Known about the structure:
The complex is a heterodimer of chains A (514) and B (831). Chain A is α+β, with helices and mostly antiparallel strands and 514 residues long. Helix content of chain A is 17%, strand content 30%. By secondary structure, chain B is mainly beta. In chain B, the strands form six sheets. Chain B has a 26-stranded antiparallel beta sheet that branches. A four-stranded mixed beta sheet of chain B has the order 2-1-4-3, with no helix packed on it.
Amino acid sequence: MSYLININKKVYKTYHVNKLFRTRNNYRSTSSPSAYMRSFIQPLTCEASINTFRIKQDINKTKFIRMKTVRLFFSIVLLSILAVSCERQYDGPPIEIPKYSREANVTVAKLKEYYASITNPTLIETDFVLKARVSANDVSGNVYKQIYIQDETGAINIGIDQNSIFTYYPVGQEVFLELKGLYMVKYGDELQIGFGNTQANRIPWEALQLHLHKSGWPDSTALKPALRTIGALTDKDVNTLVKFENIYFVNGGKNTFALADKASDEPIKDGAGKSIIVRTSNYASFAKTQLPSGSGDLTGILGRYRGTWQLIVRDKPDVGKFGGALPSNPGGTDLPPVNPNPPVGGDILNEPFSTSLGDFTEFSVTGAYVWKWASFTDKNTNVTDTYAKMTGYNSTTKTTEANEDWLISPAMDLSKITTAALTFEHAVNYGSNMQTEQTLWISSDYNTGNPTAATWTQLTIPTYPAGKDFIFVSSGNIAIPAAFIGKANVRIAFKYTCGTANSATWEVRKVLVK
Amino acid sequence: MRKIIYIVSVFLFSLPGFAQQVKEKEGTKNDTLFNKAATVNEIFLGDDDSEQEISSTVLISNDIYLSQSRFQLSQFRFRVRGYEPRYEQRFINGVRFNDQNRGVFNYASIGALNDLTRNGDVVNFMNPGAFSFGTIGGSENINMRAGSYAKGTKATLSYTNRIYYSRAMITHASGLRDDGWAFVGGIGGRYSHEGNVQGTFYNNFSYALGVEKQFDNGKHSLSFITFGSPVQRGQQGGSFQEVYDLVGDNLYNPNWGYQNGEKRNARVVTAFDPTVVLSHIWKINPKMTLSSGVGGHYQRYGTTSLNWYNGPDPRPDYYRYLPSYYTASPEVAGFYTKLWQQTCGDTPFSQINWNNLYAVNALAAKQGLGAVYMVEERRNDLYELTANSTLNTYLNDNLNINAGVEFRHTTSKQFKTVKDLLGANYLVDVDKYAERDFPDKPDLVQNDLTRPGRKVYEGDIFGYDFNLHINSATAWVQNIHKTTYFDFYYGSKLSYTQFQREGDMKNGRYPENSYGKGDNHTFVDFGFKTGGVYKISGRHILTLNSLYQTDAPLPYSAYVSPTISDITNADLKSGRMFSADLSYIASLPSVMGRVSLFYTRFYDQLKRVSYYHDLLRTFVNHVMTGVEMTNQGIEVGVKWKYDNHWTFDFAGTHAEYFYNNNPKGVISVENGSKPDMAETVYLKNLHVGNTPQTAATLGINYFYKFWFFNLNVNGITRNYIDIAPIRRLSSNYTAINPADPKAMEAYNKLVEQEQYAGAVTLDFSIGKILYLKNRNAVNFNLSFFNITNNKNIKTGGYEQGRIDITAPDKFPSKYYYMQGFNCFLNASYRF
């Protein structure tokens, strides 16, 4: 528009300019181009500009029409600009709190009772609704394709064919499980919820969504682990979330939670000497973490497989604070309650002397030298031996000093045992009178201090080494005498004596009583 | 006012037309082809990630075989002579625009600017050309000088039912004015709210502005042009045959899902490539011309995708969500089949469930944890500057010398950003597969050791961030001698290429090899070509061309894992190729055509493939070095003008593109769980995938009073799947006992290369040109493709990188299918 006006202004000085200013109306009112052109030309008085004006006229006209159509077309095309300039924005969908309307009509205990005698996967045909809370899932990878749910009466696990289930069902999420259509499966002599003909009887994910319903937001504090003692576990505790206090890892400070390519069973023990295995998968995120040393508390799911209890740690935070003093041995005080189910397969005493003398104590009756822990690495084979070692030889002065030293085991509770046998490995070098100088004794009345105060009975060591080198040999089976079976405070001791003429070097390792 | 209404209505309702700008005199037969050709590049190129596979063209070649096969067969993703797009050079105003990182031309940069990119010089295959040394796949020099456009305005409107449904363009050129100035400008756009494939969309706007000034009576001419075509589009994805069968639709798209009632596509491309070209032509004397040019462009290219951290796979067609996973229980398989077949509802099982992704993220946020699901955008930006100068001179009537120099500088910036956290609060920048395998090694899992454990938010760069600096200089010269019976030419070229990686993140798996400037790689390459024309008579000629050339490796395939380390292949060297072709060309009044035999052999090529390795459970890069390939075959292109109305044309090829050897391959693991594994890949005699090796098109054309009718019958066969190198490693099959028939069946299934079924389609088009007064013209064209609506034609696919010898059908191949019936209606008005 203004373009036109500028051209017009150059020529026009009459009020036709104003008319043309409202060009649209003017243009419409003229019936033909020529009339329009005439209206344009009429007021011209200046002669010199006629030709130039005419030329500008033509440009005006064609430019005018062209601009109109071009402008119209531009506006159609400009739709694309608008479409492109507005990048698609996506508002997130509304997040609503999960709700469930039905009431629960069964408990875990009742379910387990109802299906106690099944052998094959059994379809659940009753319309059971179970209310429970998620106690464990696959967040660390230690648990695989299952979750554990727990209510006041017990706990059970559900096999689910999906990875990273924890993203949908975090610990503490309250759920309602509609059981009709699912299957009760017996695995390892325990009941679990699963499906019919699927792989490992796991419930397909989409099918699970139809049965397992969430209610409310997850509350991780709602489910607290129950304090339990290893020796006092019952059927009701199967698959529940438990916590053991004052326990220690038998291989604490040495092994890792799992091996590089296989799952591991690592035993933990409490003050009463009871042990339970902690089973960890090599896929767990904490599999390569070293087992903590010292005592502390441990939380996990208490599983049972074919009658053997096992603890499944859910994730790193389940491993509590460790480093406490190892629990004291029972010597009459704090005896554990009578255990109706004594632990199967535990050793009474197992001391490899791998990093220290362990629970053994040493007492020097005569001489400056004492039983010590030692290790030796063979440069050829790169094998490291660790053992308890005693010698009366002074390597600085190259003389022998008279010594009598005792290496005394911790107390063994043989009260519930009917038989027991001792084995160990030992090596003797520079030995001359091994049968009298390197001897084995047993007592039931030693507590602490000088062993000569207690009553010791000698035990024969069936196999002695040659006495000329540091090669370990097994002692052979040494039966614990009947007199000591049934006693509570039984100890064995390694007694080393030497005079001034000759001192042997005695190395002992892998003491085992079972 | 009535005039306006008249013009507008003519424009909108009677579908105005188009008249050739420069080639008017050449005959109207090409008119409809011009119109059609405009459509090829946009409608047949989905330009998804596999765009790079499609050979395309901007200008029409005068060779019947090339013009017909390229247009008619590109819907089948046909590549001429099986050559990759990097062997087709594209110039604009004399400046080369194949990028230095992948060697390809970005056709999307001139999207919806077709009316401005119609003219230029075409050099077929290795034939000698004036503006470049050339290469085996031919060169095109698009002329966008403002003065070369005829004066006038042209408006075009199109409708189609493919990836976009409407297109509009308007261009205006002033022509070369008396004062030596010329201007040209254009605006265009393409749009669809949803394309023919569900979940796709297309938003594109284009612009161009050019000016030219001629000095000294046309002795010097300086031209400047700038153009760009920003686009945002939702992509299609390929899937498994089982999924196509379940959904009952070969155009199923797994990339989208409903969110708040709207379709949301997880794979959206946002691209913009503004370009500027300044060129100067100096006609030193009638026999000598010096053309120089400088071209620059900054390409922004980003593509989004879903990513997940320790969560269930969100892809709807993940193999564990398919009925075939539940082989043990037919009841469950039936349940899943029903789920897949329910396509109604607001969260259909067959598509992404965005609501679930948001819900999981919300749960994680409530626990203070990071995102489980997010959308990331992988950016592949490129800044490139090219300068060149070419001299054409005729020393005498018989000797024509062309020579040129070219300098190029490129910076390729590659990184990824957090596009959408899907309701989560943050994301921790670590490699998820390394984190799973090395939970005890916090340094290893970091993507950037200079900022370990960094939380990233929307818009932040994370994952990887590096630049590639590529520089090159080339000089070439070519002599053409002409005699009465014989023309012969020879030419050579020398080039120097240098590239270097510069990492901006210190990757935890390669702390010594990822941060800062890496090794500098330099290559010196040469090329030599020769050939000639023997003129049997004025109408029959015989031509022979040969070329031997070395090419620096493309940085794209030179680095083993460019995103995280600077390491390249041990023996990084230039690739070599030798090519020869022999043609017989006839040009009679009624019959013209060409028959050619061609043979091209590639040596020392690099091939890099990235995929998820099932056993190692992480992404791997599989690089093969010393790959040898052969492309050989016969081509026939014939046009027979029966009379003034009927014309028949035929273009066909029967060829073989295959691998010649068993190259060395190295698998490099991205999460650092294993060192690089070197092993021979058994590729010998396997076919190059995803281009039909036998193809033909027969056209029947009828012309009457400026009405054009075409019927085309197209046929393709011998199209093979793109192989996955992991299936050709012998270490996978050590457990196979040849005496066990079941094991051998699994072995054969995994090792055999699938051949797609052949296909025949029918295309039909009608066109009309109306010449109006004042040199105005109206042109309209209606084209119908695949009128038999054949929806079972596989156009592409790839074998999966995952493999399980105990269950060979567990990881089937993915396919892309061709659309059924589709049309393109085009109308343009020139005034």
